[in-house]
Amino acid sequence: MRLVTFVATDGQPRVGIMIGTGIIDIATAAPLVFEYIEDYRWDMLSLLRGDQQGATLDDLLEIQSAVISQLGNQLSFNPILPGNGSQDQGLTGSISIGGSEMLLPLAHVRLLAPLPCPTSLRLFDAFEQHALLARQLQAQTLPAIWYAVPAFAFGNHSAVYGPDALIPCFGSEALDYSLELACVIGRTGRNIRLEEAATYIAGYMIANVWCARDIQAEEYPLGLGASKSRDFAISLGPCLLTPDELEIYSDDDGRLNLTMQARVNGVERSRGNAAAMYHTFAQMIVYASRNVTLYPGDVLSSGPVGAGCLSDLTQGQGPWLEPGDVVEVEITGLGLLRNQVESAV
Description:
Elements: E1 2-7, E2 13-19, E3 22-25, H1 26-29, H2 44-49, H3 57-71, E4 76-78, E5 90-92, E6 96-97, E7 100-101, E8 103-105, E9 110-112, E10 120-124, H4 128-137, H5 144-148, E11 152-154, E12 160-161, E13 166-167, E14 175-176, E15 179-185, E16 189-190, H6 194-197, E17 201-209, E18 211-212, H7 213-219, E19 234-241, E20 259-264, E21 267-273, H8 281-288, E22 293-294, E23 298-301, H9 310-313, E24 326-331, E25 335-341
Parallel strand pairs: 10-23, 12-19, 13-25
Antiparallel strand pairs: 1-2, 1-9, 1-19, 2-3, 3-8, 4-5, 6-7, 10-11, 14-18, 15-17, 15-23, 16-22, 17-19, 20-21, 20-24, 24-25
């Protein structure tokens, strides 16, 4: 499934299933399948937690099937969304309950981040090429411990932006993007074993971890790594894609053969592949859960693919992003996440 969080005319965020150019409104369609759901919360975190009987991500498949069945002869097909990397086609048709449409055109809604406020956010550094380039800028070599454990830093899970949201430039003169792949934890686990780690992944999404490189340079002498320089914005979206949708791209080690691209004002700046990830998501989950409980809604982001940020491309010299620049990050199967840098505040 291609899950989204969206806002329609009533202004209330809720979960939907994107199929090409159509979105199934789960809150409206749920009565086709379930009874006694008047007080249910149709948000991504509640569905991940499964704290409402008969309302989990797995249950959404039944709602999707019911809507498609109800459409019947009204079912028709639209071209796929540009850049979504999928062969799915859109559903169109009119079907409602109590005057509320269950199937909405994508053009009539506003997408938010699939998980607008994750329970936590861990930022890994899983691509060797980027790790090497980052250390070179500091006249350092990559330590042996980097290869032994998938280290991470915590990000600000309250500073999440969705598709087409304006990104504050934080008053930075050296604003940078970061082309990353993220996974979302779908069930509670602690001291998770490697052979079971993949079963804890609810889905994948694109991440763009924005960074103020000038502030980052000031932080490095403190020995704490990037903190305030990455505290102000991370983009997630446009959808949360369940793992079954990416099985055709997976190798025996769980790495995903997904092309990753970034464009600035329509010009390609970065290109790589998720298969180049040195540490797999399974290894990240094992390390993150060591003596710590992971919860549904926790997000683990890969770190930038090699040459997946302006710092890698320019040896840390820029030029950097400017107010008004449009950054598009795209990953095979996961779609395209677009944001514009707003004026300094």
